[in-house]
Amino acid sequence: MMLVVAAVVLGLASPASAHAYLERTNPSDGSALDKAPDHLALYFSEHVVVEATRIELVDSAGHVTALDGLSLETDEPDDTEVPSVVTAPLPQLARDSYRVRWSTLSSDDLHRTSGFFVFGVRTTVTAGGFQEPAPRAVESGLRWLLLLGLALALGSMLVGRLLRALPTSATTGSATGLALGRLRLTGAGGAAVAALVAVVLLADQLRTAGLAWHDLVASGYAGRWALREVGLLAVLVVLAGTDRWSRGRRLAVGGGALAAAVGSALLGHAGADPGPADTRIAVTAVHLLAVLSWAGGVLCLAVVLLPALARRGVAPSPLWRLLGAFGRPASACLVVGVATGLYLTSSTVSTVDAALATTYGRVWLIKVGLVGLMVSLAALNHRRLHGPHDLDVPHRGVRAEAVAAVLVLAATGVLTSAQPATEPQFQRQPEATTGPVSSQVDDLRVQIDVAPAVPGLNVLSVDVFDTRRPAPGEVTTVSIAVGDGVARAATSLGNGRWSVAGVDLRAGPRELHVTVTRPGVRTAEVSRSWTIGAGDSARRTVVSTAPLSGILQGLALTLGLFGGVVWWLARPRRRGGAFPIDHQVEATRPTNQDPEPAQVEPSGALTT
Questions:
Q1: Among 112, 154, 391, 599, which one is most buried in terms of CB atoms within 10 A?
Q2: Are 152 and 319 in contact (CB under 8 A)?
Q3: DSSP letters of 347-371?
Q4: CA 129/CA 540 separation, integer angstroms
């Protein structure tokens, strides 16, 4: 059933990408122009909402001019993941320095980005440099509350299932029933908070974007948001019912949790990297389910279950047994969460420099440290549970884990609001091509050159020489295309030289396609790769600009395989029946209330 739900939601929804960040501008940041430009061009990594885009021009005296007539240009209007260009006409500009302030909205995830750049008209200026939009505190806080509510819902289901599976006695039965009721209310309350916060978050995004509710009806964002909301409401309805768990109720709550996780994945950074989108969405959903179940389970143990059972006078032995039972699923969630997290980070943190110099990268490092703290606390609690001297239930240790879990969710809320650390300024730029480059096709020698070979407008030159005498036909037309773009006809300059001016090229490798036509002779086609240098966007390497994606994906695969092997080897063995040994006997620890302890070591590895 859950696989069917996953297939349906993945088939109906399209992935959301990362924030739309500014790749470059024309005029470029810090440029000094001899002639005043008549328009601005802002090049973004993906589609933006032109109605929510604002551009202001500020001169050296502080006079502000709001630019009108903005237009969006893109090669694929129906694909919001491809780059786009926002152009704006400029008024007559005098000799001066100008600062351009801009803000826009990503079409996919409704994240607002902003910044500025500087240029001068017959005036030397200093570039504005790299700017990163800081995540809004309100949005980050709402996302944290949403994650916290969903974590409580998932954690209550996990801990409740473990509690039901443990043997009960006449003295612990009533306390267990009370604890299960409180767990159910906690999970339902968490799902209700998450569903309500999702609505408030959407309203806040629309308010800051300047959009109306009806603007989302036909958009992909509305469908992805509705998927998550329906999943949260399904979890809420099931948890708010009775304590009896039938197969149908288990399938309903599982499908709701899966829909909520997939919807959250579709609304997040799942499209930050050019790999298969469905794979990233599935991995993100699994990551959310694992991490939120782990964190929510710890919270439910620390805040709801252990205090409730202790107040009812339950002896330490059943509590200790419950913590031991929580160890296996919690350790599995930990391994899955860390492995999938490393895989996902491979597409959101591009280099070491990006991790150190961006808000997203720094918060990610903080989250890594917090997860390490939770693992350390879990190891200490595990040692206390299995050690020969510390015989009481580690209430304070579990509460410390719960605090760390809340902080991990808070860091995740900031990460989902921040722009991923994938800006090209922090990545190692390929070595620029130094032309011209030549190719032989049939009887023609074709030479291609690009000038000035920097990001922005360039002139493409093609020299065509016929090596046969007499020539089989005169060259009549030459056209040039960049990548999959539309071919442009070149202008003849005489003596076999052809040229196309005003070709806009971005930094990085570009494929140039040249087509030469002669009457009565087969059309000649030449394709050559040309790499444009980073130009003004280049930054000095601080630690490393080498890509991290391969390393992080390798670590994720290694951890996943290692964790799977350990899980298989450490699985409970069955003896003499259908139940594991830890369900056949009542395992106890020596306490003041239990002077003759049983000599059976229970299963369970970590409290988290």
A1: 154
A2: no
A3: TTB-SHHHHHHSHHHHHHHHHHHHH
A4: 12
Measured distance CA(606)–CA(608) in Å, rounded: 5
- Name the residue among 573, 593, 591 with its Cα closest to residue 583: 573
Residue 308 scores a pLDDT above 80: no
Query: Measured between alpha carbons, how far is 65 from 57 in angstroms, rounded to an integer?
Result: 5
Please provide the average confidence, as pLDDT, over all residues in the chain: 80
> How far apart, in Å, do the first and last CA atoms of the chain sit?
28
Alpha-carbon torsion (562, 567, 570, 573), positive or negative: negative
CA distance 360 to 19: 12
R_g (Cα) of the chain, nearest Å: 31
For residue 451 the two structure tokens come to 């000038």
Cα 138 to its chain centre, rounded Å, is 19
Sign of the alpha-carbon torsion through 350, 352, 357, 360? positive
| DSSP string for 443-458 | TEEEEEEEES-SSEEE
Residue 82 CB: number of other CB atoms within 10 A? 13
Confidence of residue 215 (pLDDT cuts 50, 70, 90): low
What single letter denotes the amino acid at residue 331? Answer: S
Q: Which residue in this structure is represented by tokens 């998932």?
A: 154
This prediction's pTM:
0.75
Q: How far is CA 513 from CA 63, 432, 599, in A?
A: 45, 18, 78
The string of pLDDT tens digits covering residues 358-377 is 999 999 999 999 999 988 98
Distance of alpha carbon 270 from alpha carbon 396, whole angstroms: 37
Which residues are within 8 A (CB) of 457 and not within 5 positions of it... i.e. 6 or more apart? 26, 501, 502, 503, 504
DSSP at 111: -
Across 435-448, b (16+ Cβ under 10 Å) vs e yields: eebeeeebbbebbb
Query: If you search the block for the tokens 């350390």, which residue do you land on?
Result: 376
Question: What are the structure tokens assigned to 72, written together?
Answer: 């969006």
Whether the CB-CB separation of 510 and 455 falls below 8 Å is answered with no
Q: How many Å apart are CA 535 and CA 27, to the nearest integer?
A: 13
Q: For 221-252, how does the pLDDT look when each residue is reduced to its tens digit (9 = 90+)? A: 788 888 999 999 999 998 887 666 677 788 88
Say if CB 352 and CB 421 are below 8 A apart.
Answer: no
**Residue 546 token pair:** 């080498």
pLDDT value of position 168: 61
How many Cα atoms occupy the beta-carbon half-sphere of 4 within 13 Å? 3
Residue showing tokens 């599935």: 282
Retrieve residue 337's tokens.
Answer: 């969460």
